Amino acid sequence: MNKFITLLTIFGVLTASALFAQDIATLRNGVEISKQEKSQPIPNPIKDDIKVGRNYPMQPPIIPHNIRDYQVDLNVNKCLSCHSRNRISESQATMVSVTHYMDRDGNFLAEVSPRRYFCTQCHVTQHDTKPLVENDFIDMQKLIAIRAEKAK
């Protein structure tokens, strides 16, 4: 009897999923899973070197320039040729955060920590494209200003 109830439940869930699946927004733009749509061209990266605001709390900063063909591997990190603390005076680039020079125990290191060495694990370039989803994030400083304005 338990197997029958389990099978009936699974069948019900699958049937309901199929009925509601048409209303779910996906990145496939309504194209069936069994069909292949022509790929959109890769958008161009924004290369204006203007810092972009964050879209959510604790978001790693976005890279405001093209990094195509940058080598980042065990032997070379092209990002650090401008962003390491001993190169920022000549490159005028933003220095990587001091947290990147700390090990997991909070001890400061002479070089970037191995766990923070591969920059593109967290940091991405911004592309000239429309957002896939709306973002209604409001920074804490803006919320404080809004509350102060309402209190007047």
From TrEMBL:
<feature type="signal peptide">
    <location>
        <begin position="1"/>
        <end position="21"/>
    </location>
</feature>
<comment type="function">
    <text>Electron transfer subunit of the periplasmic nitrate reductase complex NapAB.</text>
</comment>
<dbReference type="InterPro" id="IPR005591">
    <property type="entry name" value="NapB"/>
</dbReference>
<keyword id="KW-0479">Metal-binding</keyword>
<dbReference type="InterPro" id="IPR036280">
    <property type="entry name" value="Multihaem_cyt_sf"/>
</dbReference>
<dbReference type="Pfam" id="PF03892">
    <property type="entry name" value="NapB"/>
</dbReference>
<protein>
    <recommendedName>
        <fullName>Periplasmic nitrate reductase, electron transfer subunit</fullName>
    </recommendedName>
</protein>
<keyword id="KW-0249">Electron transport</keyword>
<keyword id="KW-0349">Heme</keyword>
<keyword id="KW-0813">Transport</keyword>
<keyword id="KW-0732">Signal</keyword>
<keyword id="KW-0574">Periplasm</keyword>
<keyword id="KW-0408">Iron</keyword>
<comment type="subunit">
    <text>Component of the periplasmic nitrate reductase NapAB complex composed of NapA and NapB.</text>
</comment>
<comment type="similarity">
    <text>Belongs to the NapB family.</text>
</comment>
